[in-house]
Amino acid sequence: MGEAQQALPVVVLISGGGSNLQALIDGQARGELPISIVAVISNRPSAGGLERARRHGIATAVLDHRDYAERADYDAALTGLIADYDPGLVVLAGFMRILTPAFVAAHRGRLLNIHPSLLPKYRGLHTHQRALDAGDREHGASVHFVTAELDGGPVVLQARVAVEADDDAERLAARVLTQEHIIYPTVVRWFAQGRLRLDDQDQARLDDVPLSGPRVIDAAD
């Protein structure tokens, strides 16, 4: 029999409650994800996800962006802090920072993000209200490799959610978040298994086949 796959060391960056972090912790605990979350780092000392990590015995660190006058200085310090843990993958899980090109370059090909829209629609903030204001019939979430362009890296997997007639931003966001907890662990598993990579042309490859577009989970009944 072959040897068991070695767990991929992962650092997770958060700014808030960390529900996507929890989905990864749960997947690791169930043996569904061949990863080891070696640290959770936040730019906000009050981030609820830090306590989630501590409850599971995961190392935590806070690097407060307010202590840095320049974005580049903060990202340089963050790069150094991440390097201390020597991760094979860095996962952005509600990390509310616009990253500098230098930071992205330092982690190229091993930096994933989840965004609450069907990219390339609605990059940036307030995506749920923007989808409602546009009269969209479906909305969702996207997992993508991070490049220097904001929310512009190649999308690997999306979940589509139907927009209901009586939706407000809060109800729609809750349904999208449920799907985020499915698609983010899926993409992290693909990466940890060696099935997913970013090639030299900034194209995502799954099982060494270029993705011409994202894989899609359709929860829009």
TrEMBL record:
<feature type="binding site">
    <location>
        <position position="113"/>
    </location>
    <ligand>
        <name>(6R)-10-formyltetrahydrofolate</name>
    </ligand>
</feature>
<dbReference type="InterPro" id="IPR004607">
    <property type="entry name" value="GART"/>
</dbReference>
<keyword id="KW-0658">Purine biosynthesis</keyword>
<dbReference type="Pfam" id="PF00551">
    <property type="entry name" value="Formyl_trans_N"/>
</dbReference>
<feature type="domain" description="Formyl transferase N-terminal">
    <location>
        <begin position="10"/>
        <end position="188"/>
    </location>
</feature>
<comment type="pathway">
    <text>Purine metabolism; IMP biosynthesis via de novo pathway; N(2)-formyl-N(1)-(5-phospho-D-ribosyl)glycinamide from N(1)-(5-phospho-D-ribosyl)glycinamide (10-formyl THF route): step 1/1.</text>
</comment>
<comment type="function">
    <text>Catalyzes the transfer of a formyl group from 10-formyltetrahydrofolate to 5-phospho-ribosyl-glycinamide (GAR), producing 5-phospho-ribosyl-N-formylglycinamide (FGAR) and tetrahydrofolate.</text>
</comment>
<feature type="binding site">
    <location>
        <position position="71"/>
    </location>
    <ligand>
        <name>(6R)-10-formyltetrahydrofolate</name>
    </ligand>
</feature>
<dbReference type="GO" id="GO:0005829">
    <property type="term" value="C:cytosol"/>
</dbReference>
<feature type="binding site">
    <location>
        <begin position="96"/>
        <end position="99"/>
    </location>
    <ligand>
        <name>(6R)-10-formyltetrahydrofolate</name>
    </ligand>
</feature>
<feature type="binding site">
    <location>
        <begin position="18"/>
        <end position="20"/>
    </location>
    <ligand>
        <name>N(1)-(5-phospho-beta-D-ribosyl)glycinamide</name>
    </ligand>
</feature>
<feature type="site" description="Raises pKa of active site His">
    <location>
        <position position="151"/>
    </location>
</feature>
<protein>
    <recommendedName>
        <fullName>Phosphoribosylglycinamide formyltransferase</fullName>
        <ecNumber>2.1.2.2</ecNumber>
    </recommendedName>
</protein>
<dbReference type="InterPro" id="IPR002376">
    <property type="entry name" value="Formyl_transf_N"/>
</dbReference>
<comment type="similarity">
    <text>Belongs to the GART family.</text>
</comment>
<dbReference type="InterPro" id="IPR001555">
    <property type="entry name" value="GART_AS"/>
</dbReference>
<dbReference type="GO" id="GO:0006189">
    <property type="term" value="P:'de novo' IMP biosynthetic process"/>
</dbReference>
<keyword id="KW-0808">Transferase</keyword>
<dbReference type="InterPro" id="IPR036477">
    <property type="entry name" value="Formyl_transf_N_sf"/>
</dbReference>
<feature type="active site" description="Proton donor">
    <location>
        <position position="115"/>
    </location>
</feature>
<dbReference type="GO" id="GO:0004644">
    <property type="term" value="F:phosphoribosylglycinamide formyltransferase activity"/>
</dbReference>
